[in-house]
Design brief:
- The structure is a single chain.
- This protein is an alpha+beta fold.
- It folds into 2 domains: about 45-370, Beta-galactosidase, Chain A, domain 5 (Distorted Sandwich); about 375-585, no CATH class.
- The chain contains 10 helices and 24 strands.
- Strands 1, 2, 3, 4, 5, 7, 12, 17, 21, 22 and 23 form an 11-stranded mixed beta sheet that branches.
- Helix 3 (about 375-390) packs across helix 7, helix 5 (about 425-435) packs antiparallel against helix 6 (about 440-455) and helix 8 (about 505-520) packs parallel to helix 10.
- The longest helix is centred in the C-terminal third of the chain and has 38 residues, at about 550-585.
């Protein structure tokens, strides 16, 4: 029975190692996303890979086309950097191209490029190295983005905006915010005026993109709004080098609806498993490590009417130059002569902050992907947030969270450690019986079971602490990997990034030492081979931990240290009970 307990413990430990390796392979490097070859010339204007991008009226409600019409790409490489509109808020600095009204560059001011740089993190860009832009406009029968002339050139009031241009405004809850509006105007020859407005709110990442169609012509105007994210196959700039490894999580598309709140779609599957879903309250996104860009369809408002949420078609496809495109199109909008209509959507490009994403659309907060252990990971993150609010440091928060988890599990683990302590006490008796009964395994098993029953020992209970810790340990791994709040978070001294490996390998070595001490408090296996395996386990796990996040190793060190204290106390108590009982027996 004792042998089976050892095998079970070994099995549990190797299961932990195996699951860590699986997570490691998933998160370290992304082989399918190969670097995109550099373009021939730097361009701030993006090619018109638009849905329904045909000049014919009959294509207004067709599924978005995968190939770009030639007439719309003729001038796509002409650099127009001087025409870009600069918008700077407290959170980011972005640029809008007046030709088409696309967001072609976003710099996140509150997130650095890497922990050793004071440069802002570049979220979107369109240059020789990378293409990652957010496009929007009006397509369909009368939509200017479906014109044979290419993307419409909007008239602008000025080329630079800051929060100094913002105006105070109250939201639906009565709270006052500083709101910055960036309007652009396009006028047709027959009297239709289209006003495209980007609305920014101080302290918030979401951008509302509104299209207002003022039909002063004598004809009915008809079109659809589209919003899409266009990205090449270049690597994720959010991943970081980890010595001989490269850290990065899922890079690809994602989408959700109220019924199917979170779905991932690899870039390689944008055509084979293309997205083609119509839903009200849906969203599309491109997900990368710590950051996300997303379009959330908004409302349609006709003259003298209240805004109504519209059902949008969510789509994905590959462009003719192998760009990955995921987006939405609204239903057909009819604007009779002499009337006005407005249609909008919200664009988000920034860190994966769960509280903000949750308010935008159902399931968008799940782009913070905690894997199949997300219920445990969510609780751990809530705990970390709570302690961070008290101490203001994520490293100490991990330590306090570990202590809390150990206190919660203390009663269960105490029973297990008590049984293991008894196993340690009766180990000499076990060895004596083994020598006495020799090859008579049947008699040895009977005597051993009688000893377990007499001493009230459960040899399998030694597996319980590890089985309890395994899901918590794995869940914390995903919390550290996915929570942008812990990106580049320092602890103390040489640990300046809890989400990265310990640069001096001090924590992994300490973890190995605590694991060795903890094992020395356990009953030693009678089988020599098992004993050797248990002795090298701390070395194996130390090697594993060399390249894992410092925060995760810190958790394991604190967990082992508390376990050593708990197990040491229980061992002493059981030993005293044993001596007291033997003294009472000898007295009788």
């Amino acid at each position: 029975m004792q042998q089976w307990a050892r095998i079970a413990i070994l099995g549990a430990m190797f299961v932990v190692a195996y699951l860590l390796i699986l997570a490691w392979q998933k998160d370290y490097g992304n082989a399918e996303n190969k670097a995109q070859p550099e373009a021939a010339a730097v361009s701030h204007e993006v090619s018109a890979d638009l849905p329904n991008g045909q000049a014919t009226a009959s294509a207004a409600t067709d599924v978005p086309q995968a190939n770009v019409p030639a007439q719309q790409t003729a001038d796509a490489t002409a650099p127009v950097s001087q025409q870009l509109i600069s918008v700077k808020t407290d959170l980011y600095h972005l640029w809008i191209n007046p030709k088409g009204g696309d967001i072609v560059r976003v710099e996140l001011l509150n997130h650095d490029k890497n922990k050793d740089s004071d440069q802002p993190f570049i979220m979107l860009e369109s240059d020789a190295k990378r293409t990652y832009v957010a496009q929007s406009g009006l397509i369909g029968l009368n939509g200017p983005d479906s014109s044979r002339a290419g993307r419409p050139s909007y008239e602008i009031e000025k080329s630079a905006y800051t929060l100094a241009d913002a105006k105070a405004s109250k939201d639906k809850d009565g709270k006052q915010h500083q709101v910055l509006s960036v309007p652009m105007v396009y006028k047709t020859a027959d009297g239709v005026e289209i006003i495209k407005t980007f609305t920014f709110t101080q302290g918030e990442y979401p951008i509302v993109v509104n299209h207002k169609v003022v039909n002063r012509s004598a004809q009915n105007w008809q079109g659809q709004m589209f919003g899409q994210i266009k990205r090449d196959n270049s690597d994720d700039p959010g991943k970081s080098d980890q010595g001989i490894f490269t850290l990065g999580t899922f890079l690809g598309g994602a989408w959700g609806t109220p019924d199917e709140q979170y779905n991932k779609l690899k870039f390689a599957n944008f055509t084979e498993e293309k997205l083609n879903v119509e839903a009200k309250g849906g969203w599309v996104a491109v997900v990368q490590h710590y950051f996300v860009s997303a379009w959330v369809p908004g409302e349609l408002k006709l003259t003298q009417g209240n805004g109504q949420q519209y059902a949008a078609k969510l789509e994905s496809r590959k462009s003719s130059d192998d760009m990955n495109i995921i987006g939405f199109t609204s239903p057909t909008i009819n604007v009779p002569a002499g009337t006005v209509a407005e249609v909008d959507a919200t664009f988000y490009s920034g860190p994966k902050i769960q509280s903000e994403l949750k308010d935008l659309a159902a399931g968008l907060n799940q782009t913070v992907d905690y894997g199949w252990l997300w219920p445990i990971a969510k609780l751990l993150f809530i705990g970390l947030q709570f302690f961070h609010g008290l101490v203001g440091n994520w490293g100490w928060s991990i330590i306090l969270l570990t202590i809390l988890v150990k206190l919660i599990l203390w009663p269960l683990s105490s029973k297990s450690y008590r049984s293991m302590a008894k196993m340690r006490v009766i180990a000499p008796e076990m060895q004596r019986m083994k020598e006495e009964f020799g090859e008579d395994r049947m008699r040895f098993s009977q005597e051993m079971m009688a000893l377990y029953k007499r001493e009230q020992v459960n040899p399998l209970s030694g597996c319980l602490p590890l089985l309890l810790q395994m899901p918590i340990f794995l869940a914390l791994y995903w919390v550290l990997m996915e929570s942008v709040e812990l990106r580049h978070a320092p602890w103390l001294g040489w640990i300046q990034d809890l989400s990265a490996m310990d640069p001096w390998f001090i924590l992994p070595l300490l973890m190995g030492a605590t694991m060795f001490i903890q094992q020395s408090l356990n009953p030693q296996p009678a089988d020599p081979m098992q004993a050797k395996v248990f002795k090298i386990m701390p070395i194996i796990f130390t090697v594993f931990m060399l390249f894992f996040p410092a925060g995760l190793v810190l958790y394991w060190i604190v967990n082992n240290s508390i376990t050593i204290l708990q197990q040491g106390m229980i061992n002493k108590a059981v030993e005293k009970e044993r001596l007291k009982r033997e003294g009472a027996d000898s007295a009788n």
